[in-house]
Write a structure and sequence with these properties.
This protein is of the alpha/beta class. It contains 13 helices and 17 strands. The protein has 2 domains: 97 residues, Urease, subunit C, domain 1; 303 residues, Metal-dependent hydrolases (TIM Barrel). It has an 8-stranded parallel beta sheet with strand order 6-7-8-9-10-13-14-15. Strands 1, 2, 3, 4, 5, 16 and 17 form a 7-stranded mixed beta sheet that branches. A two-stranded parallel ribbon has the order 11-12.
């Protein structure tokens, strides 16, 4: 690689060049130079980046890949293309495959699928077969390369299992990632429990199910110690509870799905199954609380929650369709479109770069001279309409087709 990016704005809160417009020379796998009026060498390709921004490569902490078991939905080749299209250079792969990611061989398999453009980070199953009952061999899996432990799309509600996982993971320093829920309250639910659910005649998932999950896990963390990450929180009360727990000094972090800010429960009146997600889209009050939580730092990170599904899983009656949206290609654009009037671009990019690396204990990356190349080039101002041609995933389950978004990924650089 021998490229000179000219007149590009740096967006990296860890860099001495943060918010400066400079030239960046990428050469021999490193950032060779940063400054004004750089020339490179005779073989350098110049790329005019006037009006564009450059950050460290984005990290996703929660994507599903169909391989192994459901390669028709997504394989690692298509997942890499979707990630690159969305600006991500590292992707945490959830263990929800068949077989489950719970062996050293499966960890090695995911690692081996990394390409020159995208590194895949295995998130190993916390419980055997994702049943939430018996702990996996977490110490061996960590040594084999697992970056975190989770049951992915499934919530761990068994307190004995939570207790054991938090205890054992203290020997590794790895984080336990969990989606808070009380499965007995959300069973058969298909959307947020509220006025819209009543009008539509659909069974709702009450917010209290998420709150009870958080409350129980916080109590367990106080008792056991360790590190806990709440994934895909969705309510105002959840934000408040987590802020209070952080003030007490508990080792907790949390994220939201990027798409969570783009829709409300009332948008389901058209019965579009592409809007069926778990946790569900909530109310305007909840959305504002999530925005406030992002702004004040209560919410640490944002994930794609990429969940590829085939047509047969979505083109059904609403109550029969599966939960999930593909999210890699639209993560940044939907996030920036929803937050640009309340968050700065620095805050948004930190949620995609600095925070995920810290939570997953990944090496810090910064835009400085002699640093390895791991970069995302994007526009903060481009308005565009998302269409099917913008989908790199094998699956097409997204409600964003036809939506006008602000902010667009131009290119990633890695190597």
């Amino acid at each position: 690689m021998n490229i000179l990016l000219t007149a590009v704005k740096i967006v990296d809160s860890t860099s001495p060049y943060h918010l400066q417009t400079v030239d960046v020379w990428l050469h021999n796998g490193k950032i060779a130079a940063i400054g004004q009026n750089l020339q490179g060498n005779a073989a350098t390709t110049k790329q005019n980046c006037q009006g564009l921004s450059l950050s460290t490569g984005w990290v996703d902490m929660g994507a599903v890949c169909g391989e192994v078991g459901n390669e028709h939905r997504e394989d690692f080749v298509s997942l890499a293309k979707a990630a690159q299209k969305g600006g991500f250079t590292q992707v945490g792969v959830l263990p929800n495959t068949s077989p489950v990611v719970q062996s050293k061989e499966s960890i090695a398999f995911i690692r081996s699928k990394s390409s020159e453009n995208v590194t895949f980070l295995p998130i190993a199953a916390a419980s055997l077969d994702l049943k939430g009952e018996d702990l996996t061999e977490v110490l061996d899996l960590y040594k084999a390369g697992a970056v975190a432990f989770s049951d992915g799309l499934h919530s761990i509600t068994n307190t004995a299992m939570l207790h054991k996982a938090l205890l054992y993971l203290q020997h590794t320093g790895a984080v336990l990632i969990n989606r808070p829920d009380d499965k007995h309250l959300t069973k058969w639910g298909v959307m947020h429990e509220g006025n819209a659910a009543v009008h539509l005649g659909l069974k709702g998932m009450p917010s209290i199910a998420e709150h009870l999950g958080i409350q129980k896990e916080l109590k367990m963390l106080e008792y056991t110690g360790g590190k806990l990450h709440f994934s895909c929180i969705s309510t105002a009360e959840s934000v408040s509870m987590i802020a209070e727990a952080k003030a007490k000094g508990l080792a907790i972090t949390c994220d939201i799905a990027a798409y969570q800010l783009s829709f409300l429960d009332e948008d389901l009146y058209g019965f579009d199954t592409n809007l069926k997600v778990k946790p569900p889209f909530r109310t305007a009050t909840d959305r504002q609380a999530l925005l406030n939580g992002l702004a004040d730092g209560t919410i640490d990170a944002v994930i794609s929650a990429h969940c590829p599904l085939d047509i047969e899983a979505k083109e059904l009656e609403f109550d029969l369709a599966d939960y999930g949206i593909i999210g890699l290609e639209t993560a940044f654009a939907s996030l920036w479109s929803a937050t640009q009037h309340q968050l700065s671009i620095t805050q948004v990019i930190d949620k995609l770069t600095v925070a995920p690396r810290k939570i997953l204990q990944l090496p810090n990356v910064s835009i400085q001279e002699n640093s390895p190349i791991d970069l995302t080039l994007f526009s903060e101002t481009t308005e565009w309409t998302f269409s099917h041609k913008d989908i790199a995933s094998k699956s097409k389950n997204t409600p964003f087709v036809g939506k006008t978004l602000t902010g667009k990924v131009m290119e990633t650089f890695k190597g």
